[in-house]
Model the fold of this input.
Amino acid sequence: MKFKDLATTDINTLLDMLMDLGKSDGVTEIRTDAVALELALFGDHPAISAKFVMMDDAIAGIVIYSWKWGTFTGVRDMYMQAIYVRPEFRRQGLGLTIMQHLASIAVDEGCSRIEWLTVKDKQMSKEFYDSIGAVEASHMMVRRVQGDALRKLAGL
Done:
């Protein structure tokens, strides 16, 4: 197994994999497209980094991450946007290898932690994350303003 940085020619493959991830997570509205992904990865101010997880010459999965700043730690932290392993490659240890790779990048970058969101009802994911020492941030809850509420808040 190895990791491959994406090129602009990989955008449609990445989009297809994100659609598969969305379906498996029960996401009913997926609005991203190839243009948005290309801008996020390769624009003047890239918002994300992404890598394909390769098994021989086959794309087995993806991992997408970005950076955030720890308000109370005062250092940069990694935010894992997405991790996805195609069904035919699951149960082969790829998830652990992906997380180890991200941890290595995070440590090299001086991060104090990696954070991510996970679907509550996915027991297999919960068990995996528990097995690598991940803890739930029980003192936090995700809040968001979106759609009409976002426009209203912006005064539009």
Remarks:
- The domain at 2-153 is CATH 3.40.630.30 (Aminopeptidase).
- Helices lie at 11-25, 34-42, 94-108, 123-131, 147-153.
- The two ends are 49 Å apart (CA to CA).
